[in-house]
Amino acid sequence: MGTVTLTAKTQQELDHLCINTIRTLSMDAVQQANSGHPGAPMALAPVAYTLWQQFLRFDPDDPIWPNRDRFVLSNGHASMLLYSLLHLAGVKAVNPKYERLGELSVKLEDIKRFRQLDSKCPGHPEYRWTSGVETTTGPLGQGVANSVGMAIASDWLAQHFNRPDFPIFDFKVYAICGDGDMMEGISGEAASLAGHLNLKNLCWLYDNNHITIEGHTSLAFDEDVAARFAGYKWNVMHVKDANDTGAIAAALAKFAQGTDRPTLIIVDSHIAYGAPHKQDTAAAHGEPLGEDEIRLTKKFYGWPEDAKFLIPDGVRENFAAGIGARGKKARDSWMKLFDAYRAKYPDLAARILQMQHRELPNGWDKDLPSFPADAKGVASRDSSAKVLNAVAQDIPWLIGGSADLAPSTKTLLKFDGAGDFEASTYGGRNFHFGIREHAMGAILNGLSLCKIRPYGSTFLIFSDYMREPIRLSAVMEIPVIYVFTHDSIGVGEDGPTHQPIEQLVALRAIPGLITIRPADANEVTEAWRVILQLAHEPVALVLSRQALPTLDRAKYASASGLAKGAYILAEADRGKPELLLLATGSEVSLAVQAYELLKAEGIRARVVSMPSWEIFDHQPNDYRNSILPPDVTARISIEQASTMGWQRYVGPRGRMIGMHTFGASAPLKELQKKFGFVPERIVATAKELLAK
Ligand SMILES: Cc1ncc(C[n+]2csc(CCOP(=O)(O)OP(=O)(O)O)c2C)c(N)n1
Ligand SMILES: [Mg+2]
After folding, report:
1. Closest-lying ligand to the alpha carbon of 140?
2. What is the distance between the alpha carbons of residues 601 and 24, in angstroms, rounded to a whole number?
3. pLDDT at position 9, please?
4. pTM value > 0.90
């Protein structure tokens, strides 16, 4: 299309040209892919353009500069908006080793191959895959909640690292969102917390277009969003026309000038702005406009009707002169500031660099405790509290909290100086998420995306409330730590609503998530040792409410075997087992009891403690076969949860002792009897198996 000339004489015309380039690239990409969402990018182009060009402190040459402003596209279906911006602003690619490659993150070729295999422009924006994408979005509501985590991160980092004359961290966080984000409950949870915490560096821009997939929002949504956010103690502004870049800039300027609370800018827009038959209709949401409609729309924009993927002269240059120049200046002066900071505060600067690379400080593991044998034992939530409180003193950026259950999950950091993260104390390390599990998960993701090492805790049963963010931690390959206690029917009197059955297998089903259910206090220590060294995997650490005997490691194998996911805890005589007992968590000591009874009767059992399927599955074949010898087919798994998945380890001849129904409300001992978690049952099952 080199022959086409679209000229802009004034800055306003140039702005207009850039906005229409974003629109037409988005329309063309969706049309070419024959799938995608053209309407929102067309409507939001002026909003996003104004934000990027005039406000966002972001250097396209260095998209991972630590103090950059964060931009989140929470309505991830509008991905072409972001890809157009990344391309036009000339954002450069960074590899997984954090090295800048010099090439474009999103090439025009990628846009032409929108939604195709290996394109840097997948259907929804994917963190880690496309440089400049700050978080993976698509499941509505997640992005805005991530943005709250990012805003918290900015405040925490500022409090922790800034020194007089050294404002090392002060980045702002912007999120664009739509009706879908507003309807999802998680946005309410996250906004409520953001208001409570006075996150003044946070700004959401709400695309108020009154359209979702099924049609007009009047079908299901007529709340007063402004009143709702005023209730959350946000500043609320209203831009009555998404095309009014002056009004958008004025609202953003008001935010940028500084306030004492989060900001919501409600922007009235027209989905598929300019499309004569599709504007303001749900048809523009999720399908290509069609060739004819595209031609008419381009005509309306004053665009060459047959031009495709056209980037007029001056557009890239305009971005370079705007966000490019401003971003580079901000980044370069930050680098200078950081050099001076490093000279004056070398230890703090080293911390920042370690965090950026997801490394651990020297000596991080020097205070990890070990626990003496103790038949009465200790609940794994309590041993975990000890380990966490020890290790957190050696990893200053290990911070987290609970959804109002810290007294039960025992994740509170109690040492001097740990403190609470509150509006008046942004340096605190204990977070109070309130009873908002879903937002907690997404906020943890936001914290982790800003390189803090976060953990969050609740009861295992409520992991279901936060399943999507857990899944997204795994999709994004970020090392969020989920601490889930009250891990089985062992919660006792609380009954079936609080007794997890299918949650463990549901977590194990998430690709890339590592679940660990330690058997005793020393396995808890080893679990944390493994977890803290992970840089790219999220973890679900599954802990008991009830006491677990601390195994005598002089008699049984060392808990360090946990690092391999499964290990031989108690061996059969002469190392020749005829039976394998596989167990996790609280059922390991039960397996050991059964083992001792069987041993007394001359039956050669081996107890395999199997705290993490995923870690075990990653071991070499030889190791796995040494733990589960293929010729020993008499195998019993014991776990107080759904047995789904254990077939893989016990094989066709094996037996699985687990839960096939919901639990019941009763004291633990009675439940163990009722549901068969007693040594005698295991012994009887073993004998049955061996008799066959
Ligand atoms: C949690 C979740 N539920 C459902 C969907 C499917 N979905 C994608 S976009 C959309 C409608 C979103 O409407 P809105 O945010 O107003 O976007 P617009 O059509 O205005 O661009 C739905 C239901 C989703 N992506 N995430
Ligand atoms: Mg909408």
Report:
1. 1
2. 79
3. 86
4. yes
